[in-house]
Amino acid sequence: MGPNDQFDPGQSGVDGDRFSLLHLHAEPQDEAHPDEDGGQAGELVMRSNEPGQDGPSSAEGLSMLVSVAGHTDAYQLSEQMADSLLSALPHRQMASFDVDALFDYRSRRPRMLFTDSRFSEFQGPRLDLYELQDALGRNFLLLTGDEPDFHWEKVAETLLELANHLGVSLTVFADALGLPAPHTRPLGVTAHGNREDLVSGISTWSPNAQVEAGLSQMLEHRFDAAYHDVVGYTVHVPHYLASGKYPKWQWPRWSTSAPRAR
After folding, report:
1. Is pLDDT of 97 > 50?
2. What percentage of the chain carries pLDDT values higher than 90?
3. pLDDT (tens digit, 9 = 90+) per residue, 107-120?
4. How far is it, in rounded angstroms, from Cα 186 to Cα 116?
């Protein structure tokens, strides 16, 4: 199945149980109207290209960017990256994970507003998959939201199945770690993955150590073991600023050197 084909697990011969955690949003948005998240919907991967239509071909492959809020989310990188991309690029939501099956609400209680005598703005956990198009007309996927408490293996199986059927040829993981690094120097980074052309010569620190795993680290390992191209970038941020937010005026630097699928 190519990245420009409509994906329907019920008609693709895929075991439907693999997608029991997903709520699929298969209906495309009207291109003339922005979607609910504020972006303008364009020609995206779940819609077949018309003959003669310009745009990326299925031979170029499709990239997926993964950044979830977990224990390696210093500067709230995941939220800020998603906000920046979704506010600037054409996009639509492809799928959302079943949060009631994945999250322990009592261990991380959601926030609400209480104003005068009313409760409002329930902010529950989310884990969503979006489809975006960059300024050069290249389509890519974005997995963003909160790191689940449960069913990591099932989430990994679901994403691997989706990657196979949507023709994802490169998966990029982005996170940030609070380290004893001064704010007066450029941010360091640890690059990892099986794409040497996207990893070699980039890391400013590459230790040999046993580390606590999050969903992103497990997904990178599972995708690597399944012979998918993977690359990850862990940004080093000053530990005394890790709970804050990175200045938004810095974010355009991220979009100028995004890895491409082969």
Report:
1. yes
2. 51
3. 989 999 999 999 99
4. 45
190 backbone dihedrals φ, ψ, rounded to 5°: -115, 120
Task: Output DSSP code: residue 185.
Answer: S
- Fold type of domain 16-255: Rossmann fold (3.40.50)
SS3 content of the chain, % helix, strand, coil (to 5): 25, 30, 45
- The amino acid sitting at 233 is Y
Contact (CB, 8 A) for 187 and 236: yes
Mean pLDDT of the chain: 80
C-alpha 200/C-alpha 194 separation (Å) is: 10
The structure tokens listed for 182 are: 């001064």
Does the pLDDT of residue 152 top 50, yes or no?
A: yes
* pTM of this structure: 0.78
Cα-Cα-Cα-Cα dihedral of 241, 245, 247, 253, to 10°? 100
245's CB contacts (< 8 A; 6+ apart) are 75, 76, 80
Cβ–Cβ < 8 Å for 224, 230: yes
Measure the CA–CA gap between 141 and 150, rounded to whole angstroms: 23
CA angle 151, 10, 220 (to 5 degrees): 35
Q: Is the separation of the CB atoms in 170 and 155 below 8 Å?
A: no
Element (H, E) at 218: helix 215-225
